[in-house]
Amino acid sequence: PQTIYLKDYRVPVFLVDHVDLRFELFEDGARVHSVLSMRRNPDSDSADKSLELNGDALTTLESLSLDGRALAEDAYENRVDRLVIHDVPDRFELGVVTWLEPQNNTRLEGLYQSSGMFCTQCEAEGFRCITYFPDRPDVMARFRTRIEADKASFPILLSNGNDVDKGDLENGRHFVTWEDPFPKPSYLFALVAGDLVEKRDSFHTMSGRDIDLRMYVEPRNAEKCDHAMDSLKRSMRWDEEVYGREYDLDIFMIVAVDDFNMGAMENKGLNIFNSSCVLASQETATDLAFQRIESIVAHEYFHNWSGNRVTCRDWFQLSLKEGFTVFRDSQFSADMGSPTVKRIEDATMLRTAQFAEDSGPMAHPVRPESYMEITNFYTLTIYEKGCEVVGMIHTLLGPDMFRKGSDLYFERHDGQAVTTDDFVRAMEDASGRDLSQFRLWYEQAGTPELTVQDEYDQAAGIYRLTIAQAIPDTPGQTNKKPQHIPFAVGLLGTGGESLPLKLSASDTDAPTDRVLELTEVSHTFEFHDVPERPVPSLLRNFSAPVRVYYPWTRDQLVFLMSHDPDGFNRWDAGQRLAVDVINALVGNAGSEAVDSGLTDAYRGLLTDASLDQALVAKMLQLPSEAYLIELADKPNVPAIHQARETVLGHLATALRDDLLACYQRNTVEGRYEVTPEAVARRSLRNTALAWLLHTDDEEGRALAVSQFESADNMTDRMGALRALVNSGYDQERERTLKAFYEQWKDDPQVVEQWFAVQAGSSRTGGLPAIRELLAHPAFDWKNPNKIRSVVGVFAGQNLPAFHAEDGSGYRFLEEQVRRLDDSNPQIAARLVSPLTRWRKFAPVHGEQMKTALESIRDKAGLSRDVYEVVHKSLA
Ligand code: LEU
After folding, report:
1. What is the ipTM of this complex?
2. Residue 70 domain-assigned (yes or no)
3. Which of 262, 320, 327, 329 to mutate to test the pocket of ligand 1 (most atoms within 8 A of CB)?
4. Which of the residues in the chain have pLDDT under 70?
5. How far apart are CA 269 and CA 206, in angstroms?
6. Is 64 a domain residue?
7. How many domains does the chain have?
8. Residue 344 counted as domain residue
9. 140 in a structural domain
10. 119: domain range?
């Protein structure tokens, strides 16, 4: 496969002003008639007379015409993924007719069928699977789309924009024509045809327009739309209030699709969602799912401005829309719920998974320099690190200047396809700040490491913090330059009070919270009038995506856990303490060594009802195995697993009565609500239950069984089921799993959860059990959600089994990747990821992982997607 480089970017030679599409949908395939109004791009200096269009093996070319005349065979060259038409005039109409077989499209790119309906996924390069086209985001055109299909089977026919015409045709067929007034890149094109129910609502915009909101779902999901609809309306209001952005079309549509490679897609006016990211009811979705749906609905809606109105020039700029939009949806979620909890969740994901990516063989900058297959670059780095980078600009500029910057960006670039650099420039121009060094965040990969040293000069009353930064080498990048890092700090006195941060002796009115700006390899900051040696609170609210090293004592961590006014750092101190305690036990059997400081701290959290319960619920989650592994050098996975289990067991035993009291205190009658308080209550209750069952507590067992049976919502039902699945109560486990399946077997979103709770359990998810799940009638190799909930969860969460001594977990993953490579390469390339980190693991494991990768590499006809990941990780 070919590598594509950012430095090779050239403006398109030909532009498309208008696209006229006619889709004829049949049972055995689809015919697509396309007429492109094209002209030479005045900004291109190319003298090339030939026109190049992208295509794909999924499309069969039936005919080609230029200005209405059929093209002779020698007038063009069809190389399947590229169509070259020789000698075209400066302005012309190109007619292309293609034939597709959506019913056989298992890649789920372009036009495909899912549960009987037709749908599309065009980002990044799916439009070329529908017809030949200059399929690149800087070619923006107006689309008109006519869809024809059997009226009884496909009463609903949707595309982007407004429906401008409809009517009946012969043979029981009908058509609808859609027109999108906004020029857009082909990746934002969408089409849906199916027998769907419609849910309607409306939204009154800030300028007084009424927008027609519609959700389309399969009839069995009709009752699962309310939450997404409410989330949509909240998002629309929020974007008006916080960013001044109003919706621009008269209709906004959301469609739920069962077979979908990703989460959701922001097609103009017609967002298409993976069912699991949009459908919810209290009985079928957990609190986590409710929150996720709210944030994904917001994310896709926000793309209408950050992505659609202003789009990407090329795919190297992907983070322009994704990083910024994740930042916008995080702000929204923080405003809707608890900002501290949201920050904790984002930082957890970043530190566990993005840091891992950024130190592995696929590490790449937020703006990559090259790729083979762009779908491999829909990564945590582009999305989450990209979000952090925008967040740091927000921190450096402050909310008001940031808003000025975003206003300028939207105004300056409306209707354009631009770069991350254009975004940064708008921020600079609006604020007057120089962000030239800051731009390195887009160019350099790798997680910066900050080493902090301190020194207290009692006589002078001066406290010095010295912060040194280093950025590790990553593939293709060495000797990196220091970056511009906003580093938020506070200092606490022995009584827990916040000390004023005087950067000079004359600094009156000093704040107790400051954002220090690091720009050099090492910086020393002096704080004056410090009466005693303080405890530093570093990188407050996780002000930058970096690792911080400071020799905290356990006493300092316990102190910060209860005194830091920064909620994030309170939580973080607890995490650091737990990590330290668990790590001390790795490879060391007895639990005598579990620090009583940790037990006491957790007891304090469990019993003090005056604390913010949402924060407490987070603080009671022990660091995950994945995070512990990420932190370790040559991790011994079974030993880490064992040590964590030991600590959990010790805490559960020592705190048994407090856990029971916490469980009871948080058991309250009342209507199910997804407020931060109610979510915290359920989370605390389910954590208490899980801990009790960890030690096979009899009372815990009885509580779990009764909670399972009486729960009126999925969070509590799943909480009880998970606790039982991970307990030693075999009978109850079997019985509840069976009952659960019987009750929900017709609901795919619930069945996915049922698969996942088993595949992720180190108690039950051994390989034989995983293979049984794959053989289960509800499992479906064509459905990405099912694959993720069994294979993905096994390799990503069931870490002791995945890293089994005999290498069987690795061979299992190898087998599944090889099998999926033909049918759905995008999913296969994602699943391979845990193996790519082979260099991190101790010799035997690393070798076994490498062998598995080599075997995948040697598969005949390996897809470009998997090729890129495997070759880069073996290099
Ligand atoms: N643009 C989508 C998103 O919002 C991703 C796409 C590849 C389905 O994340």
Report:
1. 0.97
2. yes
3. 262
4. 589-593
5. 18
6. yes
7. 1
8. no
9. yes
10. 1-195
